[in-house]
Give the backbone structure.
Amino acid sequence: MNYKDLADLIFPDAKDISYYEEKYPERNLKEGAIVTRFAPSPTGFVHIGGLYQSVIAKKLANQTEGVFFLRIEDTDQKREVENAIKDIVTSLKDFGLEPDEGMISETEGKGNYGPYKQSERKEIYQAYAKYLIEQGKAYPCFCTPEEGEEIRAKQEAAKIRPGYYGVWAKCRNVTVEEAIERIKNGEKYIVRFKSPGREDRKIKHHDAIKGNVDFPENDQDIVIIKADGLPTYHFAHAVDDHLMRTTLVIRGDEWLSSVPLHLQLFHELGFKAPKYAHIAPIMKNDNGNKRKLSKRKDAEAAVSYYEEEGIPEEAVKEYLLNIANSNFENWRRANKDKSIDEFELQLNKMSVSGALFDMVKLLDIGKTVISRYTAEKVYDEAKKWAERHDEELNKMLEDKEYALKVFGIERGNKKPRKDIAKWSDVKENIEYMYDDVFYSKKRDYPYQVISDKEKIKKILDLYIEKYYNDNDDKDTWFEKIKELAGEMGYAKEVKEFKANPDKYEAHVGDVSTVLRVALTSRTNTPDMYEIMKILGKDRIKERFEKGI
Ligand code: GLU
């Protein structure tokens, strides 16, 4: 009886690994091409950290003419959540991060290195587990969960390292004969890796982000095949990233401490190990405490949040690049109009510790991104968002021609307006341009320096009767407001006012404010000339009458 007999007994139908080695050959890519992946478990909503990893992975693959693929890691079937795969696929699509290869829907994958869903790769893992058993590098373990508990309790009481290793790895010493007999007798078992490592020896590892790190070798006989016949994460990672010919594993830094185990697995399996890049998580400042963005506590941890708020995907991606590489900001300053696709991401410029999530900064980027859009694009995006999330706004936008005029205010020029950060801002932003909405809401008319009712009335009357003309160009329009200020006895120029503050009660700017507040019930709006042009004389008049 030898290892081969044991392996045949455990996995009688498994193919020889040469079959898979041939089926999934080395990729024919140019030198330096990065093959990388996003490998989420379908255990809940997509976390912004996952999107962050995907942005980085896709960018590096694109930059090097490599491959970015999506693999679904669903070997922990108890934790699987319904629709999670669909969510992952859609989120990547929504953010323009479609994989070159891998899962493209809940059930379909594309590419020659699939299946890309781990639950469909059972026989592949078993082939490699069998291969390890044949060489005495893996063995069946008959310890029951209760025995596992017992071991743990003893280790805890003795204050020693927990785990299945050294003297604690009981089944390591079960002979092949005994193992075969126990299996034939129907005893339950799992398959463990026989670690060749020693805790008192160190390995050196170079991580593409974290730099050089030293670890003790792994000496744990970890489980590779569970009772349900599926692999554990560690084993699947080695087999999949080998067969899918991944060159760079980009993943969360919670996996950094598993590197010694993973390198050992690659080595014992006879695989060339990939490079690793361990990404620090996105953090949040919670009352002075820095902690990870949490799925449970923080709405912004979910990728769906950004769609619901209407933050443009371009802004989210740009923001993520901002946290990824500290030189991004300078690049952006020097290349205001370039697409982020032109930015060259560098792994060695990634921060080693977690960046703080900054919503203010993200919204600021949102404003800049939207300011570059044409009125047409703003309209399309706002409409699309409104259809899903805001019935009232959707109605307002029915008249496309009018909406385009509204969105066209101060847009397409050198200094475009920057007042919309996200599509959910739009309604608040434009509602005063819609009479029914404007009049249906409570308006409080915050008049400023000139607050006397009589004077306000006089300004508004004079303006509409004497000074307003539909055909005035902007300069004439403003000249007339100056004239009006003069007629009221106010300074026609701010300069003049400043030179003689005692001589004047107000200046031309204060007159503008009166007009603006009466028109919109706000002190701050984009260009009033353009607003008046869109409203036209009758609507201006009506607003003035209601504005007092
Ligand atoms: N399925 C693992 C996770 O969700 C993936 C880690 C990896 O990318 O290898 O964390």
